[in-house]
Amino acid sequence: MAALDYKPAGDTLKAFMRGDSFFRGLRGPVGSGKSVACCIEVMRRSMQQEPDESGIRKTRWAIIRNTNPQLKTTTIKTWLDWMPEHIWGKFNWSPPFTHRIRKGELDIEVIFLALDRPEDVKKLLSLELTGVFINEAREIPKSIIDACTMRVGRFPSMKDGGPTWYGVICDTNAPDDDHWWPIMAGESPIPEHFGKEESLMMVRPEGWKFFLQPGGMVEEKDGDGDVIGYKLNPDAENQKNLTPKYYPKIIAGKTKSWISIYVLNKLGTLSDGKPVYPDFDENVHLASEEIYPAVSIPIVVGVDFGLTPAAIYCQNVRGRWLILRELVAEGMGAEKFANLLRKDMATYFPDHRFIIWGDPAGDHRAQSNETTPFQMFRTAGLKARPAPTNDPVLRIGAVETVLCRMTDGMPALLVDPRCVAIKRGFMGGYQYKRLQVSGAERYDDRPEKNKYSHPHDALQYALCGGGESRKLLLGDTSNTKPSNAKASIDVFGHRRKVARSRFSFN
Questions:
Q1: Where is 61: in which H helix or E strand?
Q2: At a CB cut-off of 8 Å and minimum separation 6, what does 360 contact?
């Protein structure tokens, strides 16, 4: 029997490899040894396979990455670092990339797949496998994970004794908090807009287990709780295989979001482009607790139509814009979203008056039934009006002006921490896409259309409808005229008589 000289360097890595679950997911920072552990696990399970009648331990595996370049430069490289050709046999570099290992009583077939082409997905669905290793699973949709679970446990066949163990193993860096991984791991709630069937797909099945490694570093904070630096985490795993200055060196020149995801192992969004709102400061503009609506002030709702519709609830309280709630959906037309929004209003703000501002393009008729989104909203009992402008420069400028404004010594814009899409968008998810050109860095002049752009478009419509675009055009940066709200309003709702419409997001 061949041998591998490997010892997991950390309690989480040990627990992962001791596990016997059908699905095992390992999330950790860069340098934590998670990919190597998964490669070793493929070989270890192959060595533990019961031999067939001829004394041969046969297994077949698929190792998956989302793109072909990443498969070659990272996944295959890691594999061959530990299973080099001069020891384990020649690697076939012709597609599909395959490493066939015949050594002693072992007969292992490892097929490497990049799922960036339709034919690759079809290839996966035709395989009969012992197990699957998915490298960097945050880049892989849940539908592919489900397809993998159907293809394992099929080799060797039952007539040849069947697999001793079979299943799916995954590793990943920290994904977004609305990704399938943290939802199924119990770290994030199922989004409210998910339908019944989609919600059921996110319930963790029996036999699925997720492992969370410690971050490579931890934050250092001052007396006010502000991050002033980072220090090595004594609980970090795989330290013996890293240079002492590995983490301090890789964080140099990196953004806070990059460090949070890749080093601290925290859920979040990494911005590769240029943030639309560089003046957003989560320590200033993000509320520390939920914001309660003021009862005497109408709620302004901005709506972006399309098949990824979004609605943002705001209040202008004595010149301050409070972002109370977001409603974001996918694959939903205007008619269905209007009914969903009407129910949402009645559920969370039953005693309030609403002013709804929508995308001016919503006055255009659909080719299918010649009905505009605004007409569909009226049919649902919602009186929505077009925002005063659809000029992206003016819309973005209106929000940016509020971000940079102070009112009575407080920020003029405050976001409820439960507004995840708005928060992530402000923190860099809503961005100008980097252009692939030589020379100096250049970016597109319009924000990239992604899952954060729709709620931020809705926010822009709300603030423009609320008078901010007009103030920007007139050059008026003074505070908004105080509304008729009670002077003692506490936006966090500690004075219950002022904010009696308490609600929660479950």
A1: strand 57-65
A2: 386, 387, 389, 390
pLDDT at 121: 75
Q: Which two tokens stand for residue 164?
A: 């001793």
**Tokens for 274?**
């240029």
Separation of CA 123 from chain center? 27
**Strand ranges in 79-221 using DSSP code E only, listed in sequence order:** 91-92, 98-103, 106-114, 131-134, 167-172, 208-212, 217-221
Mean pLDDT for 43-64 is: 96
CA distances for 374 relative to 303, 461, 469, angstroms: 10, 14, 21
Q: What does the domain layout of the chain look like in residue ranges?
A: 11-212, 282-474
Q: Was domain 282-474 assigned CATH 3.40.50.300?
A: no
Map residue 290 onto helix, strand or coil. coil
Asked if the peptide bond before residue 163 counts as cis, ω within 30 degrees of 0, the response is: no
Contact between residue 491 and residue 502 where contact means Cβ atoms under 8 Å apart = no
Q: How far apart are CA 188 and CA 154, in angstroms?
A: 33
Q: pLDDT of 312-358, one tens digit each?
A: 999 999 999 999 999 999 889 999 999 999 999 999 999 899 999 99
Mean pLDDT of 116-133: 84
The dihedrals phi and psi of 259, each to the nearest 5 degrees, come to -65, -40
The CA angle 250-252-254, to the nearest 5 degrees, is: 90
**pLDDT at position 490 over 80:** no
Counting Cβ atoms within 10 Å, is residue 269 exposed (0-12), middle (13-18) or buried (19+)? buried
CATH of domain 11-212: 3.40.50.300
